[in-house]
Amino acid sequence: xxxSGRAEMRALGESIVTTQSAEIGKMNxxxxxxxxxxxxxxxxxxxxxxxxxxxxxxLDETFLRDMIPHHMAAVMMSQRMLVQGRAEHxxxxxxxxxxxxxxxxxxxxxNGYLADWFGGDWPMPYGAHPAGGGAPCTGGxxxxxGGMMGR
Length: 151
Known about the structure:
This protein is an all-alpha fold. The chain has helices at 7-34, 56-83, 90-118.
């Protein structure tokens, strides 16, 4: 987010890159440890547009509008894995909880930036952010079993 004039956006962008790079490293290490010899290449398709030609407000708004659904996909995949009990290793379940909760909080932060800076926001189909923070994705509907994320 070097092209952003907002310190908050530069910090958010740097945090996301640092966190996701570490997460990819951790997952690759697990693959090598738990499934040695299996191919680890994937067919990568970017989930966001190329932002390299943008600066200032155009960069900030486009990044936020692209990153929110990117995070929403990670939250949904993590919650689905947990609800359906698909994690074969405890470390993966713990990782999924962390991704779900952290990125859910970042979605609200980014939504707030959209509202404050651009007079709009991205609708949150998963219910209101719980007062007082904490683990936003535990408990009853819509996050828990039977709720939108639990199906």
